[in-house]
Design goal:
By secondary structure, the protein is of the alpha/beta class. The protein contains 22 helices and 15 strands.
């Protein structure tokens, strides 16, 4: 290891320690927040020092305590990931690193397999328990405060009965607890977040955390709203429901936010989401209404507790918007007989992504608003100028795409916009002695990218490549054509393969599949169509750290100037400006800072790195030749008709110190594999589910 590598390693360790210190300090604040010690001592002391400043006023305390650390944390995470990307240490085969990973492998084992939470690992259960403990701790402290301070005497002062006064107090505390959950709601859906990547998570694997927290948010704020409605009815104050207070809590704004939240919540339940996906998709854009009127409801000072996660989401969302404005160069496609198409895009060689990454695709000729995620099947190392996705016709959108491409030979061009790719920052497949990949139907797609990436490593590296076993289940023999996508069209890579494919056709007893009916299509993209390129350039993490830190500093400067020279001279503690006015100023300041810094970063990167590439990348034409992947893999492929794979028999008894078991497919298949690899299974089986639900 050179001196430069050592300095990077030291810097990474220092950043990691600093991030842990910030995280621990934030956790302490969250634990202490519902206590009287925090309210009477800590908060009073901080407000005495910061709350009376002419630059920030009362919100200054929450800016420093809640928002600043949670913007600094992802900024440091970006720098850490940038340095990690630059290091050349082979962590996969490092003995020390491997021992550390083996010790942590038990924490990744499935603990819960069936139930409303889905498949939950030991680590996930631990963090879920800690989060629920924080929530229960907060509610306990809040309710204790309610029943101690609210007495018959204090209730009589306001003309309320004891139960009415306590109901009023409980409603407030439920809202405070909902604010705690809301603070964590947007982190899992920030696709390019460094916080997720730094702990080895991806946005698609984190969706379930967003679902869990979202349910908690809606349960708490709905209870908060219902309690107040009951209170107002019992005390003959129904008129309060239409009140919009100038300087305090706005009831009407809270009700608008609650209605928007309930509409979103209703469509999230699986029975509705799967049947009416478009309703789910479109109603989820009400998050803008929800957050806007939530801020109006509680005021900007209290909103700053939950705004950091939303701030990071806004940065991520605007970067996605900038990327989606361009049409990308779609150069070819293959139409398979199983209602499946493969789309091949031109890619800038500078764009690198990991196996199992996903790409969000919009085709305006099908829908001008809908975006759909698809797993990338190509390898950025093996195919530096091509990016491919496979799309199975399962819903309305994908079925229209298949019908469009399969029914006509006259399509010269297809307008496509993309967002992504998004995926893990690194993969550790080489730490396993063997890989077993279990798929159902189109669940084979992430494994195609894994196989192709390992093919590249086997041809360019001296590392020991794990033996691969692909167990794939299909309904019909026509689905076997998906196997043709495993390898790129090349005849000189089969020698690098150590793979066995066990295919199962469950609904047919013999083959009805014609191998020669794959339909190739070539497109003629416009000159304005661009190859898929990294939105923030090759140093994307460093650029994102710059955007986060500089936008926050600009936001602070704007707020400081406006407060000092516009609000304070007139207001001076007399509340002449309404709470909504101050909230709008803060929200506009956030918007201006994010839009300005993100736009400058994206357009400067585009000018510096993205050169015009008018030539169609050679070798993208998917013509089926004599050396097709199907023929190259025929010797290592066994096909079983009329039966399902016996996963217990295939997985139990596998030899090797570390056997990576990956599954992507229907829910029952994932649960079955998870059960086999659960906490009581042989220690060498290490489970990972790649499937996700949007």
């Amino acid at each position: 290891m050179g001196l430069g590598e050592m300095s990077k390693e030291v810097t990474m360790k220092v950043i990691k320690l600093l991030m842990m210190a910030i995280l621990m300090g934030t956790i302490v604040i969250w634990i202490m927040m519902p206590t009287s010690t925090y309210r009477k001592i800590w908060l009073t002391s901080m407000r005495a020092k910061l709350g009376k400043t002419t630059n920030f006023g009362k919100p200054g305390v929450n800016l420093l305590v809640y928002m600043f650390p949670m913007i600094l944390l992802p900024s440091l995470g970006c720098i850490y990931l940038h340095l990690k990307k630059q290091t050349s240490v082979d962590q996969f085969r490092s003995g020390v690193e491997r021992k550390k990973r083996e010790k942590c492998s038990a924490l990744r084992r499935p603990m819960l397999v069936k139930g409303p939470l889905g498949i939950v690992t030991v680590t996930e259960l631990m963090f879920l328990t800690m989060f629920m403990a924080l929530l229960l701790w907060s509610l306990t402290n809040y309710f204790y405060f309610t029943f101690v301070t609210v007495t018959p005497q204090s209730a009589a002062i306001h003309g309320d009965k004891l139960w009415e006064a306590r109901l009023d107090s409980v409603a407030v505390r439920l809202g405070l607890a909902g604010n705690i959950c809301l603070a964590f709601l947007f982190y899992p859906v920030s696709r390019g977040s460094s916080l997720l990547a730094a702990v080895g998570l991806t946005s698609e694997s984190s969706i379930k955390y967003h679902i869990w927290v979202g349910h908690l948010v809606m349960i708490l704020i709905t209870s908060h709203g219902v309690c107040y409605v009951v209170y107002w009815i019992s005390t003959n104050q129904v008129y309060q429901m239409l009140e919009w207070d100038r300087t305090s809590i706005s009831n009407l704004a809270g009700e608008i936010a609650l209605v928007a939240g309930l509409v979103m919540w209703t469509t999230t339940f699986p029975a509705i989401r799967k049947r009416f996906f478009e309703a789910f998709y479109y109603t989820h854009h009400l998050y803008i209404v929800f957050m806007l009127f939530f801020v109006f409801h509680v005021g900007i000072s209290h909103s700053l507790i939950s705004l950091p996660g939303f701030y990071i989401f806004v940065v991520d969302r605007f970067l996605r918007f900038l990327q989606s404005r361009n049409n990308v160069k779609l150069v070819s496609a293959r139409v398979l007989p199983c209602d499946t198409v493969e789309l091949n895009f031109s890619k800038n060689p500078m764009l690198m992504y990991s196996p199992t990454s996903i790409l969000f695709v919009k085709i305006p000729s099908i829908s001008k608003l809908q975006w759909h995620p698809f797993t990338i099947t190509s390898s950025s190392k093996l195919e530096p100028e091509k990016l491919s996705v496979m799309i199975k016709g399962q819903g309305k959108w994908s079925t229209k795409l298949y019908q469009m491409l399969s029914s006509s030979d006259q399509i010269d061009r297809l307008t496509v916009s993309i967002e992504g790719p998004y995926g893990p920052t690194s993969t550790d497949f080489l730490r396993h002695d063997s890989l077993v990949m279990v798929s159902g139907g189109s669940g084979i797609t992430p494994f195609i990218s894994i196989i192709r990436d390992l093919i590249y490593l086997s041809s360019t590296s001296t590392c020991q490549i794990p033996k691969m076993t692909l167990i794939c289940a299909f309904k019909h023999s026509s689905d076997l054509s998906m196997l043709d996508l495993i390898l790129p069209i090349s005849s000189d890579i089969s020698s690098f393969l150590d793979i066995q494919i066990k295919a199962f056709v469950t609904r047919e007893t013999e083959s009805t599949h014609n191998k020669n009916i794959i339909k190739p299509l070539c497109f003629k993209p416009y000159v304005s169509d661009q190859p898929i390129s990294p939105i923030l350039g090759p140093n994307s993490w460093l650029c994102l750290a710059t955007i986060l830190s500089s936008s926050f500093m600009i936001f602070i400067i704007i707020i400081g100037i406006i407060t000092r020279y516009h609000i304070y001279p007139i207001d001076q503690g007399l509340n002449k400006y309404t709470s909504a006015y101050k909230s709008i100023i803060y929200l506009l300041a956030i918007s201006v800072s994010v839009v300005a810094t993100s736009s400058i970063a994206v357009f400067s990167n585009k000018k510096q790195y993205c050169t015009k590439n008018d030539q169609v990348v050679e070798g993208l034409s998917p013509l089926v030749t004599e050396s097709s992947p199907q023929q190259l893999l025929s010797e290592s492929t066994s096909i079983h008709y009329g039966e399902r794979p016996n996963l217990n028999k295939l997985l139990l008894g596998l030899k090797g110190l570390s056997v990576g078991v990956f599954v992507c497919g229907p829910r029952k298949m994932r649960q079955e594999v998870a059960k086999i690899c659960s906490f009581r299974s042989p220690e060498n089986l290490q489970f990972e589910s790649i499937s996700f639900s949007w």
